[in-house]
Amino acid sequence: MGGSGWYLTQQYAALVRFGLWDELIALAPPAPGFTGLSAGYLYGRGVALAARGRLEEARAALAELRSLGAGPPGEQYPLHEVLAVAEPIVVARIAASEGQDAAAVTSLEAAVAAEDRLPYHEPAVWFFPARHLLGAQLLIAGRPAEAERVYRADLKRNPRNGWSLYGLAAALRAQGKTGEAMRVTREFGAAWQHADVRLVASAFWFAGPDTFSCECQRTASGDRQTGRELLGTQHEARVD
C-alpha cells in the first residue's frame, strides 16, 4: 500500500475535509505510476467537482477512479478496500448535488460499511470518518433520529470528536431534545475550544451544489439559513 503512494494522499483529503473545492480542482494530477496517489487525487477531485455542481466532470473523475480498481483484488490489495470507501462517497456527492437525498444516503451507508471493514492500522488507512458525511446527509434528508444514531456510533469509535459532537447536537435539536442538545453543545465547546475553524456542520457537505466562494460566506450563511439551503438544521448547534 505504501508503494502505491496512498499515504501521500492526505494532501487531497485535507482539502475535502475543509471544503476547499477550488484549490482541489486547480491541482494537477500526480505523476503516473503511483496508483494509490492517483486514486486519492481522483477521489478528491470527484468530490470537489460534484460539490461545485460540475457533475459531468465529476462523473468523468469517478469513471477514472473506478478504472484504477478494475484489476483483480489480489493484485492491488488493499487499494480495493479503500476504493470501496472512496467511490460511493463520490457517487453520494453527485447525488446530493442533484438533490437525490435518498440515493446519497444509500451510497454513504455503503461507504461507512466499507470503512468499517478496513483493517486496523496506524495511521488509519482512511482519512476521516464517513459517518460525518452520512450524518450530515441524513439531516439534509430530514432524518434526524437516524443521524443521531450515526453520530453516537462514531463517538464510540472516536470519543469527543468535535465534528460528531456538533452533528449530534444538531440531530438532537431537530428532534426537540433540547436539554440533551445543550449538554452535547457544551461538550462540543470543550472539545473545539482551541480550533481555528468554526463549524457549521459535521462535514462540508451540502444540499445541492456549494456556491460559496469563501469560508466567511459559509459561516455567515450557517448562522441564518434553515431547511435545505445549508446542511439542514445543523447550524443550530453552534457554540455562541
Give your account of this protein's structure.
With 240 residues, this protein is an all-alpha fold. It has 2 domains: 1-128, Serine Threonine Protein Phosphatase 5, Tetratricopeptide repeat, CATH 1.25.40; 129-240, Serine Threonine Protein Phosphatase 5, Tetratricopeptide repeat (Alpha Horseshoe). The chain is 62% helix and 0% strand. It has 12 helices and no strands. α1 (10-17) packs parallel to α3 (35-51) and α6 (79-97) packs antiparallel against α7.
Low-confidence stretches: 224-240
Described by strand count, sense and barrel closure, the largest sheet is: none
Q: Beta fraction of the residues?
A: under 5%
Number of strands: 0
The CATH architecture of the largest domain would be Alpha Horseshoe
What is shown here, in short?
This protein is mostly helical.
Topology:
Elements: H1 10-17, H2 21-26, H3 35-51, H4 55-68, H5 73-76, H6 79-97, H7 101-117, H8 130-140, H9 144-157, H10 162-174, H11 178-192, H12 215-224
Helix pairs in contact: 1-3, 3-4, 3-6, 4-6, 6-7, 7-8, 8-9, 8-10, 9-10, 10-11
Which descriptors apply to this entry?
240 residues, mainly alpha, Serine Threonine Protein Phosphatase 5, Tetratricopeptide repeat, 2 domains, globular, disordered C terminus
